[in-house]
Write a structure and sequence with these properties.
525 residues; alpha+beta; 14-stranded antiparallel beta barrel; 35% helix; elongated
Length: 525
């Protein structure tokens, strides 16, 4: 063969050899498949760590290598759903179930969840009907359908579907009982709800679901009382105060009165009751009366007695709760000796020589936010009118408390801030204050709940330049509820107050420390 022909045949032989070797050793295809799986694993890890952008990029790389792999496509849809890109997720989900409705029956539940998130409940039910057509004996179909009917809400249909799931799989008896109890609670069928929670406990008393059901029974009882048109709560407390805080506790801003170094004890009595003339789940309105009284054993000038009629309007639609309340408070301060020696220091304003009337308007907004956060925003306007030579005043307060429930626990730390501005007709009584608050609450043991808080307040008197009054308060309490009606509380607080203002003897008249120890009993009717 001449050299010319050898030159022309060499490339053909090389190609044939390459094809032959590729058949015997398909290394590039294996490497390609392995690369797709590596990207998929990276995407799953990113999805679990909530790094959604990286997850999308990894899943797209895997799909580019294996465009027909439905598992890759399904996980990309899951990631879009977590990013709240519901339409993109739905398009992928529909493509997957159209190609493999049996193998990917789980996708119908994701479709239903996406539509439920959009509050498109008919579409969610339609997706679950398609899942039922694929596997009518899958109990998850009926569980998911029950959850959707709860959101509509159609509570009877929800209960019917939960029972259907239990019939198909008896292992679901306890969680289904719990779901039915929660459904009856949402429908405000409190007796039926409590009965189902007790059935939940009876199935397996030591399970985590049973423990949640026990707490839910207490919540049902509290809700039953809350839905009654008549409401009433009373409280009695006894306290030991190792310093008397002020000669007159209500006639001016904190820290502006001479402090005595007298140990004393006092008793408190409060009662609050009323009637709800609008009593719906999302809307309440009512009117009532409150009585409040602090009676000291020796420092009778610190006694405080008040009549407080009130009216309120409350709107409840989770995640927003709004309350608007008006109070007309009539206070008596000081008193004459009554029956102090007998151990009862409450004299209900007998012989009081100072009187004060306060009109209060108190809007409050609570927002339950995602990720276990809750914001409480409060405003308060008061108009104070004294019945002596004391200057009348207007008081403005604005504050916010942000709380956070630590995941998988019942511990709730909080942080807050309040601003107060009191404008008196006599400038010597006008002041502004800033208060910061830190606290935490949660269970301890044996049904006892604890609370610890620290607050720091700085007040400025407007008529004295550069004057500051500072107050630090540390408070702690232990609370235990008995029979869901009686609350017993042990209380301790420490207060340290001082200012940068001294008298002619270089003494700060508002500087003091005090400890208060006490207990109280509160009964809810």
């Amino acid at each position: 063969m001449c050299p010319f022909f050898r030159m022309q045949l060499a490339p053909i032989g090389f190609i044939c050899l390459s094809v032959f070797l590729s058949i015997l050793f398909p290394v590039p295809a294996a490497q390609s498949q392995e690369g797709a799986m590596n990207h998929f694993v990276d995407g799953v890890e990113a999805l679990e760590s909530k790094d959604f952008d990286d997850a999308v990029a990894s899943f797209k790389k895997a799909i580019a290598i294996e465009p027909l792999n439905l598992e890759f496509q399904y996980h990309l849809g899951l990631t879009y759903a977590r990013q709240n890109k519901d339409q993109a997720a739905l398009e992928i989900f529909e493509t997957v179930v159209r190609k493999e409705p049996v193998q990917f029956v789980k996708v119908y539940y994701d479709i239903a969840a996406s539509y439920s998130k959009q509050k498109n409940y008919p579409k969610a039910l339609e997706a679950l009907k398609r899942a039922e057509a694929v596997d009518p004996k899958d109990p998850r179909v009926y569980l998911e359908r029950g959850y959707v009917y709860n959101k509509i809400p159609d509570y009877d249909q929800a209960v019917e579907n939960f029972n259907r799931a239990k019939d198909l799989d008896p292992k679901l008896t306890q969680p289904v009982y719990y779901d039915i109890a929660a459904t009856r609670f949402a429908a405000e069928q409190f007796d039926a709800s409590e009965e189902m929670f007790r059935k939940t406990i009876a199935v397996d008393p030591k399970s985590a679901i049973a423990e949640n059901a026990r707490q839910s029974v207490r919540n049902v009882r509290a809700a039953r009382r809350a839905r009654k048109p008549l409401y009433a709560v009373s409280s009695f407390g006894w306290y030991y105060d190792d310093h008397t805080p002020f000669e007159s506790p209500v006639l001016g801003p904190p820290g502006t009165f001479q402090v005595t170094d007298e140990e004393d004890q006092y008793q408190s009595l409060t009662f609050r009751g009323g009637y709800k003339f609008i009593n719906r789940k999302k809307l309440e309105a009512g009117a009532g009366y409150a009585l409040s009284h602090n009676g000291y054993r020796e420092s009778l000038q610190n006694n405080l007695f008040a009549h407080i009629p009130h009216i309120y309007l409350q709107y409840n639609r989770e995640p927003v709760f709004f309350r608007l309340q008006y109070e007309l408070s009539y206070y008596y301060t000081g008193s004459s000796e009554c029956i102090q020696d007998s151990g009862i220091y409450l004299n209900f304003g007998s012989g009081s020589d100072k009187k004060l009337m306060i009109n209060s308007l108190m809007p409050a907004l609570t927002i339950v936010e995602p990720h276990n956060l809750k914001s409480e925003i409060m405003l308060n306007f008061q108009r104070k009118e004294y019945f002596d030579e004391t200057s009348n005043a207007s008081n403005y307060l604005a504050g916010i408390i942000q709380s956070y429930q630590i995941p998988k626990t019942e511990y709730v730390p909080r942080i807050g801030y309040k601003f107060t501005d009191e404008d008196a007709s006599d400038e010597t009584a006008s002041y502004r204050s800033h208060e910061g608050l830190l606290g935490i609450s949660g269970p301890i043991r044996w049904g006892v709940a604890g609370d610890l808080s620290v607050s720091y307040t700085k007040s400025d008197l407007e008529n004295i330049p550069d004057h500051e009054n500072r107050s630090l308060i540390i408070s702690a309490s232990l609370t235990r509820t008995f029979y869901d009606y009686l609350l017993v509380q042990l209380i301790y607080s420490f207060t340290k107050n001082a200012s940068n203002l001294t008298d002619a003897n270089d003494v700060d008249p508002s500087k003091y420390r005090k400890n208060v120890y006490g207990f109280s009993l509160t009964y809810t009717f």
